[in-house]
Amino acid sequence: MNSDFRSVLRGLTGARLKRAVRLGVKSLWLHRLRSMLTMLGIVFGVCSVIAMLAIGEGASFEAQEKIKSLGSQNIILRSTKPPEEQKVSDKGSQSYVLQYGITYTDVNRIRATIPGVSVVMPARNIREYAWNISRRVDCDVIGTVPWYPEMRNQRVASGRFFTDADMESRANVCVLGAEMVPALFPIDSPLGKHIRVGGNYYTVIGVMERLGAGVNDSETGGSGKPAAQRMFIPLETARLRYGDVLMRRRSGSFEAERIQLHEITVKVESLDQVTRVADAIKNLMERNHKKKDYEIVVPLELLKRAEETKRIFNIVLGSIAAISLLVGGIGIMNIMLASVTERTREIGIRRALGARRRDIVVQFLVETVILSGAGGMVGVLLGMSIPFLVTYAAGMKTIVTLWSPFLAFTISALVGIVFGIYPALRAAQMDPVEALRHE
Amino acid sequence: MATPIVQFTDVRKTYQMGPVTVEALRGISFDINAGDYLSIMGPSGCGKSTLLNLLGCLDRPSSGRYRLGGEDVSQMNDDALSSVRGTRLGFVFQSYNLIQQLTVVENIEVPLYYQDRPEEESRELARRMAARVGLEHRLEHKPFELSGGQQQRVAIARALVNEPLVILADEPTGNLDSSSGSDILELFDELHAQGKTLILVTHDPTVGRRSRRTLRLRDGRIESDVANR
Asked: What percentage of residues in chain A have a pLDDT greater than 70?
């Protein structure tokens, strides 16, 4: 009997809620413009939460991809021109041979003394013009070892990378970066064709996949130039063709640099040893190089830093969005307070005709929840479409995570309840006699 | 004889206006039997409105006892009073007090809305009440589309829809011209003839004379309680 009664009660309150919603929609519809404007606050709040999170997520995804392409188990050492040498070479008119950078001895030392290091991958970077008959591309010629793509998480798009055999025979073969293919071979496939680089002809045996934007500058030995073009030749071939001395002609002078290796990549066997090995290499290099003519890049540390940055970024974006939602909520509260005052008489009538305090609370609360709920929904739709627009118009990568619309919508509904409670309570606390007398 | 529908026993009401205590009702006792048609009259400030608010369970007496339909309502809490208003009382106001954004039929339904009646049932009841006051062809109109007399008839239909023990009317003809006013008074006569209990607050002697019994108030006390005709 008791449970029957309760189920009846529950059924009735469900029906009553349905009617309350209908009533709420009706009285909101009566003041269409006002309701729309009130909703806008929530719409923009929710929309900005989703859009900002999507843009932030996209940006950090790109940064992480970039770092991952360096290989999180890798430690990269690069030759850099020591600062004091740079000054000398800036004087210009002198002929001067600079000798700096990572040497083959360094590679051997690392290999011999540091445990837990699987591969040491040396590479040389030479800046040269690559020619296909009359087409010319200014590119970085990277002399490296056959396992370069595997270690750098890069893939060959067509053809193949060079092999140990190519390396030993010092074959004149090359693999082109995807970025320079359209400039050299706009129509036909480059595979099997020959290009001229610095007086030598190389057979194109493969083309690399395109890299994400910005990854390339890690290939140029930190020269800072936006060198999108790169091609690979076997390291031994590079040694044979270029020797150890690089000549660079300038107007009125020339400078020569002696660099054995531009870059070496050390692969550590397991992730948790990366930091330890990096320290060991730092020590080793410090002991053997008088000048700071190298830099050490640890992608794992970069990754950690990027994650930290992302966390801070998310907190900042989250609080901006929270503030805009708060402002929207205050807007709703403001309007509802005005609406309560305006409808004092209606409240009095309803109270006289048998409405309990909680009926009045429900009536006004339902209105605010409808406002913020509808605003939330519109905001979710807008917020999910804006990232596409951003991607389309600005070319930025955006990721709408699954949870962000839910989060934003829940927050907006909560805002409706929180900011609706006070006006609703105020409406309910009115004395019916005074409310009826209200003009 | 059956117990009276309304029993007032030494009811007092005082208001605290800052430092001043205002005694609006100074001990009022009277009974109203089922089927009575009572008018409450008196000069302004005599406590008419206060008495009506107490009768309508919109306010509680400071002391004394008010029994409505045999039940003491003088010390009930707010929710219980709301439910008493919704089930046992019908209100007719001077300024009609219809809800402007609702249609005629929806206005009539309002008291049933808070009684959790099924929708179809209350819609049907509201239609019947509208027909009873002669507004069956105006169901979907909004109040501002109706004349004052029509609006007051909607209010009367609304006061009837929950089959109350007592219908309370506060100057029901106060805002109406004489012809629509007399229409309303005729409607009250009809209701009285059908056995409804009516309480009417007015300062218009012609209105008061149509009731069966007149209660005169002065300075918060009953001055006279006489049967008419």
From this structure: 86
Token digits of residue A13: 């309150």
A129-186 pLDDT, tens per residue? 888 888 888 888 888 888 888 777 788 888 888 888 888 888 888 998 888 888 888 8
d(CA A233, CA A126): 11
**Is residue B145 one of the residues assigned to a domain?**
yes
The H or E element spanning position A250 is: strand A245-250
Looking up residue B208, the CATH number of its domain turns out to be 3.40.50.300
B1 domain-assigned: no
What's at B170, amino acid-wise? D
Q: Is residue B86 within 8 Å of A353, Cβ to Cβ? A: yes
Provide residues of A within 8 Å CB-CB of chain B: 12, 15-16, 19, 26-27, 30, 345-346, 348-359, 432-433, 436
Classify the C-alpha dihedral B170-B171-B176-B178 as positive or negative. Answer: positive
Strands B20-32, B6-17: pairing kind? antiparallel
Lowest mean pLDDT across A69-73, A380-384, A420-424, B205-209? A69-73
Tens-place pLDDT, residues A49-104: 888 888 888 888 887 777 777 777 888 888 887 776 555 555 554 556 667 778 87
Q: Which of B53, B82, B119 sits opposite A356 (nearest CB)?
A: B82
Show the tokens assigned to A357: 């305090």
Indicate the average pLDDT of chain A.
81
DSSP B136: G
Distance of alpha carbon B201 from alpha carbon B207, whole angstroms = 9
- The tokens of B102 are what? 């609702």
Instruction: Spell out a b/e string for A129-148, using b for 16 or more CB atoms within 10 Å of the CB, else e.
Output: ebbbeeeebebbbbbbbbeb
Rounded Cα distance between A414 and A392, Å, is 33
| Whether the predicted pLDDT of A201 surpasses 60 | yes
- Residue A251: both structure tokens together: 């107007």
A149 or A252: whose pLDDT is higher? A149
pLDDT band at A227 (very low <50, low <70, confident <90, very high): very low
What residues does each domain of chain A span? 2-64+306-437, 81-292
Tally of helices (H runs) and strands (E runs) in chain A: 14, 13
Q: Are A110 and A142 in contact (CB under 8 A)?
A: no
- The tens digit of pLDDT for each residue in B123-174 reads 999 999 999 999 989 999 999 999 999 999 999 999 999 999 999 999 998 8
Tokens of B130: 């509208």
B47 touches chain A (CB under 8 A): no
- Number of domains into which chain B is organized: 1
Nearest CA among B189, B220, B215, B228 for reference residue B23: B220
Among B59, B78, B115, the residue with its CB nearest the CB of A354 is: B115
Give yes or no for B116 touching A (CB within 8 A): yes
Looking at CA atoms only, how far is residue A35 from chain B in angstroms?
16
The neighbour count for residue A378, using CB atoms within 10 Å, is 19
- Residue A255 confidence (pLDDT): 63
> Which residues span the domain enclosing B55?
6-227
